[in-house]
TrEMBL record:
Residues 30-254 form the Xylose isomerase-like TIM barrel domain. GO terms for molecular function: isomerase activity. This is Sugar phosphate isomerase/epimerase. Transmembrane segments: none annotated. The lineage of its organism: Bacteria, Bacillati, Actinomycetota, Actinomycetes, Kitasatosporales.
Length: 294
């Protein structure tokens, strides 16, 4: 089966993906994984509800469904510090979400929790930075005590689109509970060269999202199958391999579901597109030249 992978691909760990990009419900998400031969998932939403907001009954049903399917959870994509939570908001929302996820990640056997670093909301640059650094330190301390690792994504927020800021965040927080998540496709919509950024960040990367995209003439972004866009996915994979990254590669194709644009629920064709994207990723890995330029 094209795209089949249960143990790892080349130097990398398992191929996985954010399930709600394939289908809203757990059954549809697991069905898409089965079509790819994948046995891990990254969780974000179930039937439109964030993992932290599921009722205890719904969460219990999800854990049983995953166990019955033999599927493990590699990471949780939280809303902490994301595009919907500016730096002027109440940190209490993020701490409460983290506390719930600490319990749920323990039940799922998962340690990685995706975070971002808070969009600005009219603050001066220095004030924004100070608040982000202080707030992330609080979150990392709580995560460390819970046995979790927060992985900061190169997306929305103070440290999202600049390597120097991401490295400053790591230095300032100085915690084993804070690492980086690198998304190969975010450079296109945010206007930076992803492979160039990754060269500086690769030693600190603990999780990877895979997407690809092109910039349209009007300045908007269109998402593509991995390897068919302008994000430099193959170059990113070579850089990661060269730096010894052995973690999972998690598919987040954004072909049908783009929460930051209000597209929150996968439609009828989402599973097929998710599977095509997974197959494209596997093909890209199979045909990548280890000797090519990074």
């Amino acid at each position: 089966m094209p795209g089949q992978n249960t143990a790892g691909h080349g130097p990398f760990g398992p191929l996985t993906g954010i399930g709600d990009e394939a289908a809203p419900g757990a059954d549809g998400q697991l069905a898409a994984l089965r079509r790819l031969g994948w046995t891990t998932v990254e969780l974000r939403n179930i039937d439109g509800t964030a993992l932290a907001d599921l009722s205890p009954t719904a969460f219990g049903a999800l854990t049983r469904r995953l166990a019955d399917a033999g599927v493990t959870v590699t990471a949780v994509a939280s809303r902490i510090g994301n595009w919907s939570r500016p730096i002027t908001g109440d940190i209490g929302r993020d701490l409460a979400e983290l506390d719930v996820l600490a319990e749920r990640c323990a039940a799922l056997g998962c340690r990685l929790v995706r975070i971002m670093s808070y969009p600005n909301d009219g603050l001066a640059e220095g004030d924004w930075a100070d608040r982000v650094l202080a707030r992330t330190a609080v979150l990392a301390d709580r995560a460390e005590r819970a046995g979790l690792v927060l992985v900061h994504e190169n997306c929305a927020g103070w440290a999202g689109d600049r390597a120097d800021r991401a490295l400053r965040l790591l230095r300032a927080v100085d915690s084993p509970a804070l690492r980086l998540l690198f998304d190969t496709g975010n450079g296109v919509p945010y206007g930076y060269d992803a492979p160039a950024m990754l060269r500086d960040l690769a030693p600190h990367v603990a999780h990877v999202h895979i997407k690809d995209a092109v910039r349209l003439p009007d300045g908007s972004t269109a998402y593509t199958l991995p390897g068919e866009g302008e994000a430099g996915v193959a170059r990113c994979l070579r850089i990661l391999a060269d730096h010894g990254y052995t973690g999972a590669l998690s598919l987040e194709p954004h072909l049908c579901v783009r929460p930051h644009e209000g597209l929150n629920r996968a439609g009828a064709d989402a599973a097929d597109l998710f599977v095509r994207a997974g197959q494209a990723l596997a093909a890209l890995l199979d045909h990548a030249s280890p000797d090519g330029p990074a």
